[in-house]
Write a structure and sequence with these properties.
Order of helices and strands: HHHEEEHEHHEHEHHEH
Structural class: alpha/beta
Strand content: 5-15%
CATH architecture of one domain: 3-Layer(aba) Sandwich
Number of helices: 10
CATH class of one domain: Alpha Beta
Helix content: 40-55%
Number of strands: 7
Strand order of the largest sheet: 4-5-3-6-7
Largest sheet: 5 strands, parallel
Radius of gyration: 40 Å
């Protein structure tokens, strides 16, 4: 009879003594010919609810919670655009940038490289390119600055500003480049802010005079200026020092390094906005 108790799976003969192997249950209860060891099974419904809640419920809460905890969000995901680990600075922000610099500073080349290397759609708008849309009747400033060249510059700035606003309204960043002078804020920086908007981020690209002269000498067409004119423009651009605008001296930086420095400067300007 002890063997029957152990076969029930409890393994605790103490609480169920083997002395009463014949409980007062008549054999005529539908168990004909059943041996006395059947009596432990009649006690099983009394003990099974007592032992099963003691072992199974504590284990079920311990094994169910782990699945949600092992699926954290991907840390590299920014919005719906997964950024590579190497991307830093402005990331996927939509912004408008004005890159200022003298002739030969490399602003057009740097602006184009920065726009093409961003992880989001970015347009490059060059003032000189828009100015040269005028074919017949083009007022070349090298032939002398007059009312016609001034009017065409103003028209080109308004056209660039309209294009920039249109790109921004469609979620596309843009970078413009122009030789804006600090001693003409209403026409230069103030005019660009009116055309593009108050969120415009201006950055000055100002290498040394020797570098500017060397780069200008490598230019061709009506974009190449005389050394005297380059030196005069460079001297006027020095007025941006002390203005509060971020200035990048790219005398010893290549195009890629300058574009990277530009992105870092813009990231700081976005983190701590200033009124120019």
């Amino acid at each position: 009879m002890q063997q029957g108790v152990g076969g029930a799976g409890w393994g605790q003969p103490g609480p169920h003594p083997a002395a009463p192997p014949q409980p007062p249950i008549p054999p005529a209860q539908g168990w004909p010919g059943s041996p006395p060891p059947q009596s432990p099974h009649q006690h099983q419904p009394q003990h099974q609810p007592q032992h099963q809640p003691q072992h199974q419920p504590p284990h079920q809460p311990q094994h169910q919670p782990p699945p949600p905890q092992m699926a954290p969000p991907v840390p590299e995901a920014t919005g719906h655009i997964p950024l590579p680990p190497a991307v830093a600075g402005t990331g996927g922000a939509v912004l408008a940038v004005l890159l200022i610099g003298p002739a030969g500073a490399g602003k057009t080349t740097v602006a184009r490289h920065w726009a093409s290397s961003r992880p989001v759609a970015t347009a490059h708008i060059s003032l000189d390119d828009v100015r040269e849309w005028v074919c017949s009747g083009f007022a070349d400033p090298q032939a002398g600055w007059n009312e016609h060249s001034e009017a065409q510059y103003r028209l080109a700035r308004r056209t660039c500003g309209f294009a920039a606003r249109n790109y921004l309204a469609n979620g596309i960043s843009c970078i413009l480049d122009d030789a804006v002078f600090p001693d003409r804020p209403v026409v230069g920086l103030g005019g660009w802010k009116r055309h593009v908007g108050p969120t415009l981020l201006p950055v000055v690209l100002l290498p040394g005079l020797e570098i500017v002269l060397e780069r200008n000498a490598a230019r061709s067409g009506n974009r190449r200026l005389s050394d005297e004119e380059v030196a005069r423009i460079h001297g006027r651009m020095a007025g941006w020092y002390g203005s509060g605008l971020p200035i990048i001296d790219n005398s010893h930086l290549d195009v890629e390094g300058t574009a990277r420095a530009l992105d870092e400067v813009l990231a700081r300007a976005m983190a701590t906005p200033q009124s120019w």
